Amino acid sequence: MAPPFPNEPAGIHVQTAIPGPKSEALRARHARVQDARTVHFYQDATRSRGNYMVDVDGNTILDLYGHIACVPLGYNHPALLEAWRGGRFDWAAGYRPALGIAPPAEWVSIVEGALSRVAPRGLSQLVTVTTGAEAVENAIKTAFVRHARKRRGGAPPSAEDLALTMLNRQPHTNDMKVISFEGAFHGRSLGALSATRSKAIHKLDFPAFDWPVVPFPANRFPLDENTAYNAEIEARSLDAVRALLASDPQIAAVIIEPIQGEGGDRHASPAFFRSLRTLTTERELTFIVDEVQTGAGGTGRFWAHEGWDLPEPPDIVTFSKKMQLGGYYLRPELFPAEPWRIFNTFLGDPIRGAQLEVIIEVMERDDLIGNVGRTGETLVTELRGLQSRFPGVFSQARGAGTYAAIDARDPATRDAVVRGLQTLGVEAGGSGDRSIRFRPALVFEDRHVHEAIERFEHVARRLA
User: Fold this and answer.
1) Catalytic hit among 5, 185, 221, 302
2) Among 31, 196, 198, 432, who pairs with 36 as Cys (CB 3.0-4.6 Å)?
3) In 3D, which of 108, 86, 84, 88 has the Cα closest to residue 97?
4) What is the pLDDT of residue 1?
């Protein structure tokens, strides 16, 4: 059992509307210079503790959303504050370096220490960037470098290749493709958007590569009652992948999330992912597992793909969110032969790397992944109970660790649930068209589960 979070509030306390008058006043100021329409409310960063956000109006709010899955230790964990006040981060506070040019010596200790300690099995090389979208962009670029190198028989690019590059007329290269899945979300930058297949508003009016998409086998729950259906849709998805691989030699990679987050918390079985790994291995294609949202412990494993029992590791695993900075791990043989191929000015963020070092120490010390597994069992059990009590409102309770979700009967009901929870002091978020997702911190415990379920029931009674 993880130790209790020091000075964490005893529970939810609502004293104004959410968002309250101070939040709305801040929104008005904010909106003069930035788009503030998506802001839920404004947070009091120093008063928030553990699993509870405190907003500027003094409301204490239970956080199920975690800033879209980005908060590993809750708010103001003492280990992070002590590290800051004790000078542990001083080396990173005075300037932000170009890590590919003149990195501080301390950066090497982080890379060979904490970041290497949590590397997925078989992936000993690392690229760090700033965000999840950057991680995906550069993972795809790495796959393309591999595919082009294979096509050239391992030879370096010719002078003609380099000249045509500057005209955007590279033969064959411009035809390379990545397979992604219906409902996928891989980021909002231009390359990543071509692999993203959810939230049309993010893709609208932006040019996209003509890359293929196949159905994602969104399993139905409970799994033991839907065995035949789930096996059928997984087989159908794999057949679609096989057909594409057989017909198009320009496919360089397959990218997939262990659990589709933005697409609706959609799951597939370990057997499906093993088959996908086998298909990519047979054709020497790059298998990219996008763990930007699932990585760093939220599923009850540090990496969600650890539960698949793969015949061999993925080629690339991307990360960000709870890891605080972005990047990806990769097999040594995928690293480009030439320098500067995968590069940008910052190549990460030293302060976030230093924070991650402390975060991993706390995760190990307090067995937070074990805590996630235990709390996740309670959470999914309670969500199943909720749907049995309110079958006209909720269905499809599911989860891995505390990376969990439940479906509302339709999109309007889902939105009403999220709004209703907010008025009761619970910060929640939607997923897909009708799912409510749980992305709490790794310090989320049973008492927080019960407090959340009580609020869900209150909302459900009004909607039943």
Assistant:
1) 185
2) 31
3) 108
4) 61
Nearest to 128, CA basis, from 354, 307, 314: 354
Tokens representing 318? 């991307």
Q: Of these residues, 165, 227, 345, 423, which one is catalytic? A: 345
The mean pLDDT of 386-402, rounded to a whole number, is 97
CA dihedral 446, 448, 450, 455 (to 10 degrees): -160
CATH 3.40.50.360 holds for 90-363: no
Lookup: tokens for 307:
């539960």
Pairing status of strand 251-256 against strand 426-427:
unpaired
148, containing H or E segment: helix 132-151
pLDDT in tens, 42-61: 999 999 999 999 999 999 99
- From the list 63, 181, 321, 456, the catalytic residue is 321
Q: Which parts of 36-131 fold into alpha helices (H)?
A: 66-69, 78-85, 90-93, 105-110, 116-117
In the numeric block, the tokens 């499906």 are attached to 272
Query: What residues does CATH 3.90.1150.10 cover in the chain?
Result: 21-63+367-463
Q: Which of 57, 63, 265, 290 is catalytic?
A: 290
More confident residue, 367 or 200: 367
321 is catalytic: yes
| 185 labelled catalytic | yes
Chain length of the chain: 464
> Among this protein's residues, is 290 annotated catalytic?
yes
